[in-house]
Amino acid sequence: MPTVDRDDAGAGAPARAATPSGQGAPPGSLPPTRDARKRCWAARDAYFSCLDANGLWLHGLAPTQYDEIVRIDPTRPPVASESDRSLSREQRAKLFTCANAKAFYESECLGSWSVHFAMLRVKEMQSKHLAEKIRQDHEERFKNKDEFWARVKKN
C-alpha cells in the first residue's frame, strides 16, 4: 500500500500518493532525464556555435575592449536589450542574430541551467581574452628587451 503525502497547505488539501518512482511529485521537481539533458546540451552547443560564428559572447553581448571585458560580472553580464532604441539596425542585427537558436536552447534547458551555462561561457571568454592579453604583453616585453635593459642601465 503506498504511503500518502499531505501538502502543507492545510486541511482539505488534496492527498498525493508517493511512489518510489516519483510519479506523485509536483511537475518540475524531478531532475531531467538523460535524453532531456542530451537535448539541452545539443541545443546549448548549437546556440554557442552560432554565437562563436558571429563573434558574440551571449545574445546581446559582444565586448571588444580590454576594459569592457575585465569589468563584466559573469553572474550579471551587461546584455543589451532587443528593444534598445540607441542601437542601430546593423548593431541590433549583429547582437541578436542568434535569437532562434537562443529560444530553442532556452526551451530545451532548465532556466537554472541556462543561467549556469551563460555564466560559465562569460568566465571562459574572459579567461581566454585575459590569457591572450598576457601573452601579447609578454611578447612585447621580449621584443623590446634591449630597450628594457638600456633603461635599466640608465637608472
Automatic annotation (TrEMBL):
Keywords of the record: Disulfide bond, Mitochondrion
Record-linked InterPro entries: COA6_fun, COX6B-like
Region (Disordered): 1-36
Name listed for the protein in its UniProt record: COX assembly mitochondrial protein
Keyword Mitochondrion applies: yes
Top-level taxon in the UniProt lineage: Eukaryota
Localization in the cell: Mitochondrion
Keyword Disulfide bond among UniProt keywords: yes
